């Protein structure tokens, strides 16, 4: 009978038969080994004995026709093929959990968890306001925020450890697995504490700023790349005295403790200036930095809570661009 099938149908049947051999417990075990990198711990995590987990792993590798892990005295380490399978196993598990949450939502408001990656210096205003608005409408949601550098958070998103990323990602070099949506193009400004010698200056120049102590995002970030390019274009050198940090809270404290400069999104800087915590310097950076973006997996299916947060982020960004809060309309410090 199979000999009479069209070759295309035969190939489709073979692919389906190969996929059908995989069970949910196979995916769960791969995810656990990838997370723990220890077969005994992975077996305990999945409520199996170690011999049973070992047999299942060998069966998975047999189905695929290739090894997925390097065995050693320190445990199991995934090879490139193993990393690929772990990533897709984690995605499928997340999709199944998302389907469960979607079914629960039919009986009431949005529930479940949303894991958000945030480059805080980029998303410090829009993200918390969006979270507050969403939770006021759907208090059953649980939202967790993980801060970090954009490239590290993008890796976590690819691995299925995050649902979305809010930050400034270089769209020109974005991995093909990620979908990037521009939220806003807010410019950055240079700031210092209120007692800095430059705080009351009507104008400062690049050659004066380059010798100062700075707090900047790490060199691996798109923001830092464009910042350095601006100085190289202007005076053929970049600041050398730099503290690398993407933590807004740390940067705020450090700005008060020492004479240094930093860069912040304009709305964030205006808010802090209104509180008398810093001054915006008269140095034009312009809209040279990458746009603030929402980043998701291109082939992922965002569950209801994630979709609701994405829409809230869009609405908040539009509102702040068209109708900024009244306390942010002036750059005069109190």
Explain this structure to me?
The chain is α/β, with parallel strands linked by helices and 334 residues long. 47% of the residues lie in helices and 17% in strands. The protein has 13 helices and 12 strands. The protein has a 5-stranded mixed β-sheet with strand order 4-3-5-12-6, sandwiched between helices. The longest helix has 26 residues, at 80-105. The protein is elongated.
| Number of spatially distinct domains | 2
Question: Which residues form runs of ≥5 with pLDDT under 50?
Answer: 325-334
Strand order of the largest sheet: 4-3-5-12-6
Tell me how many strands there are.
12
- Report the sheet with the most strands, covering strand number, pairing sense and barrel closure: 5 strands, mixed
N to C succession of SSEs: HHHHEEHEHHEHEEEHEHEHEHEEH
- Figure out the total of helices: 13
Measured between the Cα atoms of the first and last residue, the distance is 85 Å
* Residues in β-strands, percent: 15-25%
Cα Rg: 25 Å
What's the average pLDDT? 82
| Strand-pairing-aware structural class | alpha/beta
Q: Mind telling me the CATH class of the largest domain? A: Alpha Beta
What's the CATH architecture name of the largest domain?
3-Layer(aba) Sandwich
What's a quick, concise take on this entry?
With 334 residues, this protein is of the alpha/beta class.
Essential attributes:
D-Maltodextrin-Binding Protein, domain 2, disordered C terminus, WH_DNA-bd_sf, DNA binding, transcription, HTH-type_LysR_regulators, five-stranded mixed sheet, Arc Repressor Mutant, subunit A, single chain, DNA-binding transcription factor activity, 12 strands, 17% strand
